[in-house]
Amino acid sequence: MFIQHVNFLLKILIIILPALGCEYLLAQTTDRSAIDSMTHLLGRRKEDTNKVKLMIQLSSAYRFVDNESGILYGKNALQLATSLGWKKGMADALLQLANNYTVRSEYPLALADFYKALEIYNQIGKKAGSAEAYRSIAYVYRDQGDYNKALEFLLKAFRLAAESGDKVVIARSYEPMGSIYKHMGNYAKALEYYFKGLQEIEEAGITNETSILYGDVGEVYILENDGPNAMRYEQKALDVAVKSGEIYAHAWALLDLGKSCMILATDTVHPPGYTGRKINLQNAVRYLEQALVLAKQMQSFRTMRICYENLAQAYRLNGDYKKALENSDIFRAILDSVFSRENSDRIARMEYNRKQYADSLRVVDARKSADLKLQQQKNYTYLGVAGILLLSVFSFFIIRERGKSEKLLLNILPREVADELKSKGVTKARHYDNVTVIFTDFINFTKAGERMSPQELIDELHACFKAFDEIAGNYGIEKIKTIGDAWLAVCGLPKSDSEHAEKVVKAAMEMTAFMQNRQSQLGDKTFSIRIGIHSGSVVAGIVGVKKFAYDIWGDAVNTAARMEQNSEAAKVNISQTTYDLVKDKFTCIYRGEIEAKNKGALKMYYVAGQSLT
User: Fold this and answer.
1) According to the model, what pLDDT value does residue 13 have?
2) What is the rounded distance in angstroms from the CA atom of residue 190 to the CA atom of residue 487?
3) Domain CATH number, residue 5
4) Domain membership flag for residue 228
5) 542-547 long-range contacts, Cβ below 8 Å, gap at least 24?
6) How far is CA 186 from CA 81, 192, 295, 314, 328, in A?
7) Do residues 333 and 359 both lie within one domain?
8) CA–CA distance, 290 with 148 (Å, rounded to integer)
9) Which of 72, 178, 355, 408 sits between 20 and 30 A of 262, alpha carbons compared?
10) How many domains does the chain have?
11) pLDDT tens digits for range 285-332
12) Is the CB of residue 539 less than 8 Å from the CB of residue 531?
């Protein structure tokens, strides 16, 4: 264990030490004279609210260039605001202090201060401040991979920002909303939010912040293997970042340019003698190395982690396997640091276990009292009886908790996969030839968010997905995951089912009927649904080691998604393959060949109902 800790510390030193020689970048990426000017003014300020404001500005200015100073000024601002009894200054200082912790990937500390700031903003009725706190909290949950929680807080940010008329917070909230959908694989909605964000930022007059959004658009094209469009938007991102002097945006623009170059080098069939691949790979390494220098200067472990990950890939494509391995090792060291079990546990305890913590204190107090009484009485017989009783209680709780764990595991994984994981500790991905995949999506989800409170929106989403899960369970359909307001499931795995297509279509018809009935009862307080179905083969297995999930991959999943995207409200759209399997059971309406994104023209059918024959 000691050797492992030493190796880890050596890796972290490899990451941090080069950053100490990067001071020359400070002058290139931030207005040092402005920082010096504020520092000079600070020495002449009285201990009043203006000094608090100045220290908060310094905390913000140092955020990406000297994290230690940013944290120090944030703490000093908080201390002075507290002594003055100025609550807004306390909240503003906490917010900026948490922003600095976020750059360092110290998420539990950041989350704690964001929540403190939110509580104060709510107390003093500063809706704009509360909206910014909600937005910042959403960033933490997004970076930790908890996208549903991030979505919940972003919806709260949107609502409060709209109530307060704060166009800046509204404009800034579109980027994390888009990034959540990007991480969930819904690229169309991600682009929708990104382009809306660009428009809102223009109207809010903060055009120097467009760099991140241009970079996000480029990254979606990277994920879709569209190298030319990716390069176009990443270059826009770099131009704006260099002009504005934003080091964070500058680093990410270079990082995404490096990714784009790798795509251009690998996704095209080139003629003999073509040298562009080598040039693109060289450019990829150059851009990624430049991004890494800036990431080290910011001490942003998240940015460094992604730089090292992509550098490992770039060097591997270049055939330099030694450097590829070196960068991969450092990437994994940072990954273990940023996404550590300790971070996850601390956040979980902070968010969910307050009541349990209080209960545990009472249990400890009770146990101490019992021990003291036993010592005073020196009654060994009573001690033995108490020990037996205590053991019985512990046994009861262990059995109960084991049952809860079993139930939770079966909510995440199919029983066969869960049994394999418990017995062997690992599971293997498997290929399934005959399955049917179903995608559902709510058409007016974004507009519904404008009509409903965040809690109403989440409650309605939960009610609908709960009904879908129950319908799926009735037909032996395996629910895979929710992706924002989309729902994905499959039939025919892990156990094969000869009626997989028929069962999925029946379930889809029930879901449609459920939503139509709900609309007749709730009106615009619920959603319109569209459904897409395709049959084919998939690969299924567990991904990740932290917050692992059972997932499916393959062309059948992509085609089902295209069926959903080309469906209409209250319609079930199926592919030719699915139609061939269910045509004797259902009446279907042929729609012709319809152009689907990245798939070409596909034959599609609407399911009209069950066949009477």
Assistant:
1) 35
2) 17
3) 1.25.40
4) no
5) 542/413, 542/417, 542/421, 542/427, 542/429, 546/339, 546/341, 546/344, 547/145, 547/146, 547/344
6) 43, 10, 28, 26, 28
7) no
8) 34
9) 178
10) 4
11) 888 889 888 888 777 777 788 888 888 888 888 888 878 788 777 767
12) no
- Pick the last residue of a domain from 106, 125, 144: 125
**How many angstroms separate the CA atoms of 259 and 241, rounded?**
17
* Cα dihedral 410, 414, 420, 421 sign: negative
Model pLDDT, residue 578: 95
Which of 299, 308, 307 has the alpha carbon at shortest distance from 327? 308
**pTM of the entire predicted model:** 0.48
Q: Would you call the peptide bond into 108 cis, given omega within 30 degrees of 0 as the criterion?
A: no
Domain boundary among 66, 92, 125: 125
Q: CA-to-CA distance for 363 and 613, rounded, in angstroms?
A: 66
Asked whether residue 395 falls in the same domain as residue 287, the answer is: no
Q: Is 122 left (phi over 0), alpha (psi -120 to 50) or beta?
A: alpha
Mean pLDDT for 433-460 is 82
Give the list of residues 6+ apart from residue 311 with CB closer than 8 angstroms, or none: 258, 285, 288, 289, 292, 323, 327
Residues in the chain: 613
Cα angle value 99/100/106 (rounded, 5°): 95
Domain membership of residue 588 (yes or no) is yes
State the CATH number of the domain containing residue 73.
1.25.40.10
User: Is there a contact between 418 and 409 (Cβ–Cβ < 8 Å)?
Assistant: yes
Q: Which two tokens stand for residue 117?
A: 């700031």
Query: Is residue 523 domain-resident?
Result: yes
> C-alpha 486: how far from its chain's center?
15
Do 396 and 529 share a domain, yes or no? Answer: no
**Domain enclosing residue 303, as ranges:** 1-23+241-343
- Residue given tokens 């049959």 in the structure block: 535
511 and 570 belong to one structural domain = yes
As given in the structure block, the two tokens for residue 181 are 């959908």
Tokens at 595, concatenated = 């152009």
511 and 390 within one domain: no
| Greatest pairwise CA separation for the chain in angstroms | 93
> Residues near 262 by Cβ (< 8 Å), separated by ≥ 6?
280, 281, 284, 310, 313, 314, 317
* pLDDT tens profile 532-546: 999 998 888 776 555
304 shares a domain with 390: no
Return the CATH number at 504: 3.30.70.1230
DSSP string for 443-511:
TTHHHHHHHS-HHHHHHHHHHHHHHHHHHHHHTT-EEEEEETTEEEEEES-SS--TTHHHHHHHHHHHH
Q: Are 606 and 492 in the same domain?
A: yes
Whether 527 shows a pLDDT value over 90: the answer reads no
Q: Note the pLDDT of residue 432.
A: 86
Is position 87 within any domain? yes
By C-alpha distance, which of 516, 531, 526, 423 is closest to 477? 531
Which two tokens mark 421? 């994981």
